[in-house]
Amino acid sequence: MRHQKKTVKLGRTAEHRKALLANQVCSLIEHERIKTTLAKAKAVRPLAEKMVTLGKNGSLHARRTAVAVLRQKNAVKKLFDNIAPRSASRNGGYTRIVRLGPRMSDSALMAYLEWVDAAPVTEEKPKDEKPKKTKKETVSETPVETAAAPEKKEEPKKEKPAAEEEQPKKKRKWFGRKSE
Q1: pLDDT at 166 over 80
Q2: Which one of 81, 112, 130, 178 is CB 3.0 to 4.6 Å from 98, fit for a cystine?
Q3: Which pLDDT value is given to residue 106?
Q4: Cβ(131)–Cβ(124) below 8 Å
Q5: Is residue 126 part of a domain?
């Protein structure tokens, strides 16, 4: 019987899974918000909450336990100095999972995992570049040298008749030979 053996295996061995979850928690501590699959987010959440509980304790033993699990001293330092004090008044529920929808490549459900007490993060769309200037605009921007010079009018170019347009190339039937 598999009593008390419930764990999300994520298709990995135990060592790989522990390393993955520790790295995800370290990324969450460093960046305050991570984008991952929904299954990984649900697996990371309990470990992240346990680390915050250790951070709230603040003892040397709690710090060493966190280093043993996360394996990154700088992440533990940030956890104990910044993240845990923010959550001091909260009794659990330090993280939030925001569902995003399926990923384009393999349709895996994606989600953001973020701290509840963190400042809200807004993603800005990149601004479009300046529109390119056309030839007419650059000609009109040039200063006129003499006022007495006669103005030249630009004549619109005539389009080629439809008969003179290039005909489409023939498709090749065989990759090794060119069609004639």
Answers
A1: no
A2: 112
A3: 95
A4: no
A5: no
**Tokens matching residue 105:** 């490549």
Total domains present in the chain: 1
Report pLDDT for 119: 78
- Tell the residue number behind the tokens 């979850």, with chain if given: 21
Query: Does residue 131 sit within a domain?
Result: no
**At 114, which helix (H) or strand (E)?**
strand 109-115
Q: Judge whether 146 lies within some domain.
A: no
pLDDT in tens, 22-77: 999 999 999 999 999 999 999 999 999 999 999 999 999 999 999 999 999 999 99
The residues near 119 (Cβ < 8 Å, ≥ 6 apart) are none
Q: How far apart are CA 55 and CA 127, in angstroms?
A: 40
* 106: amino acid identity, one letter: D
CATH number of the domain that 95 lies in? 3.90.1030.10
Name the nearest CA neighbour of 17 among 43, 56, 46: 43
Q: Where are the beta strands (DSSP E) in 1-64?
A: 33-37
Backbone angles phi, psi at 39, to 5 degrees: -65, -40
Please give the full DSSP string across 63-88, using - where no structure is assigned.
Answer: HHHHHHHH--HHHHHHIIIIIHHHTT
The helix/strand/coil state of 65 is helix
Count of residues for the chain? 180
Please check whether residue 79 lies inside any domain of the structure: yes
Given a contact cutoff of 8 angstroms between Cβ atoms, the answer to whether 40 and 10 are in contact is: yes
Contacts 24+ apart (CB under 8 A), 137-146: none
